[in-house]
Amino acid sequence: MNGMAPVITVDGPGGVGKGTLCQWLATRLGWRLLDSGALYRLTALAAQRRNLSLHDEPQVAAIATGLDVEFSAGENGILHIRLEGEEVSAAIRSEPAGNAASQVAALPQVRAALLQRQRDFRQWPGLIADGRDMGTVVFPNAELKLFLTADPVERARRRHKQLSENKMNVSLAALEREIAERDARDVHRAAAPLMPAADANILDTTPMSIAQVCEWAWRQARQRLEIPTQHRD
Ligand code: C5P
């Protein structure tokens, strides 16, 4: 096939339902999935395991460059992530891991180190890219750009439900504080701050079910992309 594989970017803050939507879209279209947040989470975890300060930009960037990571789809489409051969899928999902990720994500050298690795995911038949800067920085020429938002209290509630289902106990109040802190860092950082691309389609998911969000995204995809008939409904 000629040319670049198509990309749908899905950006927005934590707890808006991006992860679920992206997995749904990737399964429905039979496309690859890039969980870019996992790369920042893995970088932070690898740095912490080497007892590095998360503020040591050159050292953390070196970790990002050499990150020995393997993504593989297990049963039921569940993504397995191995860091230096060790399964860390659950370890990187905790709130502290998310917070550590947002600290290293503010470092420009770390973002630069992960840029090409993310672009390499763009392969046929297509890519669903989940993150904060997919439509603005990593894939500025994406075929379709979606940006999800939701009220912070609702996002804390959703995150709480998700963490409880994974048997991680965090109080709702603590989550609301952490979400506010992480939002502030992601929105106000100088390097690739969290914001919608000028040509993104924005959706406030606060009053919506995940099924409604998927339906909305599917409508956008059908309008914008040539979807093979076997994937149409
Ligand atoms: O999406 P997830 O919660 O896994 O992301 C963890 C952190 O990684 C975010 O809070 C953000 O600071 C950072 N991130 C980023 N750019 C991305 C994806 C994630 O800065 N494309």
Describe the protein's architecture and organization:
With 233 residues, the chain is of the alpha/beta class. The chain has one domain: 3-Layer(aba) Sandwich (Rossmann fold). The protein is built from 9 helices and 8 strands. It has helices at 18-29, 36-49, 57-65, 95-104, 108-119, 134-138, 152-165, 172-188, 210-224; strands spanning 7-11, 32-35, 69-73, 79-83, 86-87, 127-131, 144-149, 201-204. The strands form 2 sheets. The chain has a 5-stranded parallel sheet with strand order 2-6-1-7-8. A 3-stranded antiparallel sheet has the order 3-4-5, with no helix packed on it. Strand 4 (79-83) and strand 5 (86-87) form a beta hairpin. Helix 3 (57-65) runs parallel beside helix 5 (108-119) and helix 7 (152-165) crosses helix 8. The chain is globular, with a radius of gyration of 17 Å. The protein starts with 6 loop residues before the first strand and ends in a 9-residue tail after the last helix. The model has no long low-confidence stretch (mean pLDDT 92). Residues 14, 36-37, 40-41, 98, 101-102, 105, 131-133, 182, 186 line the site of cytidine-5'-monophosphate.
Uncertain runs: none
Q: Output the structural class.
A: alpha/beta
State the order of secondary-structure elements, H for helix, E for strand. Answer: EHEHHEEEHHEHEHHEH
The major β-sheet equals: 5 strands, parallel
Number of helices: 9
Radius of gyration: 17 Å
